[in-house]
Prior knowledge:
Blueprint: H1 4-7, H2 12-50, H3 70-77, H4 81-88, H5 100-110, E1 116-118, E2 130-137, H6 143-151, E3 168-176, H7 180-193, E4 196-202, H8 208-223, E5 230-237, E6 241-242, H9 244-253, E7 262-267, E8 295-304, H10 305-314, H11 327-338, E9 343-344, E10 365-366, H12 371-382
Parallel strand pairs: 2-3, 2-5, 3-4, 7-9
Antiparallel strand pairs: 1-4, 5-8, 6-10, 7-8
Helix pairs in contact: 6-12, 8-10, 8-11, 10-11
Amino acid sequence: MLPLYKEKQISPSVVCTLLQNSRKAKTIVLVFVLLWLLLGVWLLYTSYLSKGSFRLEDLHPFKRGREGSDQEQHEESEIHPILARALHMKDDGHGLEVGANVAHRYTEGQGGSTPWSLSPRTELCKGQDFALLALVETSPHRFQQRAVIRRTWGQSNAGKSEEENVKWQVVFVMGSAPDVMTEERLVDESLQYNDILQGKFEDHREEDNLKVTLGFKWVNSTYSNGSCVPSFVLKTDDNVLVNMKVLAPWARDAHEISQHLFMGHVLRGGRPSRDQSEPRYISEAKYPRDDFPNFAQGPAYMFSLDVVIRMVKAFRAFEHMTPFPFEDVYLGLLAEYLRVVPIHDDRFVVMKKPKNTCLYRRMTFIYDVSPQEMLSLYHIIESDDVDCREI
């Protein structure tokens, strides 16, 4: 058989040209493959950096301008990757301005000595004492509830006249979020509103006492030697409407009971349920006593600042009991240990929602309300000229 180039009448010079062109094509393909590989490596590298694999001190806007201690540098290198990304933010649609104080705030919260990963800045009260600090228990995903509270009773503003001059502050207390997306939203929310206190524990409803102890520890850390202090600390939930038109003036004027106070809807002579079908069941191994101390039933109760600080100091004696399923009983045990007697006040009693709207103006707490209900009821409370009606 004759060679191919003889069968097709192709000259040897043409065959050589074809072979040379083939080698060039292979070279071009190889170059493209190498370029794609380099692009992939670059994308992986930038993705790796965006997940926080850098030190806070390398972020130019927040460099300290001096060499810190080895311990400080170690703490900065362990900053949460989500927080590191948050520190990069300039303007992502929220109108946020991130400065050196935010960097300090988050490095302070990320240190191993504090039990929180997000916390409000300490200059909440701007050097002036205020009547009431409200610790509101919430969960990471309940963004709408927190937004409505900020628009309604959680607004930290003065009274409607110069004579009233009533001030209060709201801080939302929660555990860690179950997913990265929610955690990122919480960082944005904290940067914008400066009212998030997040613990380094998973957020579970049955472990709400961890939120109370977290809130109390933060209060002790922030206000025990601060330039401004609240007269009282209120603990409540994010589904409770607090009528500040009633509570805040009372807290401002209650000087005679501004110490040694633990107030709420006090239950006496209670006993633990050993029936596993009951919602408040507790095993004998978890709680061997056959009776409960006198305690203020949740979800709302109030303390003077000195009692909160004393309870924080007593936490160590009760570490073997945490987490404890009933936060109100747990606080009753702490009060019993400290010989603080809970005071009953009818304003904290859980009542059915009245049908007459004017009755809401006299209530201090309205329990178990949805965000929509909170908005409408707040309007009723604040609008004195609204006629009473049945709902």
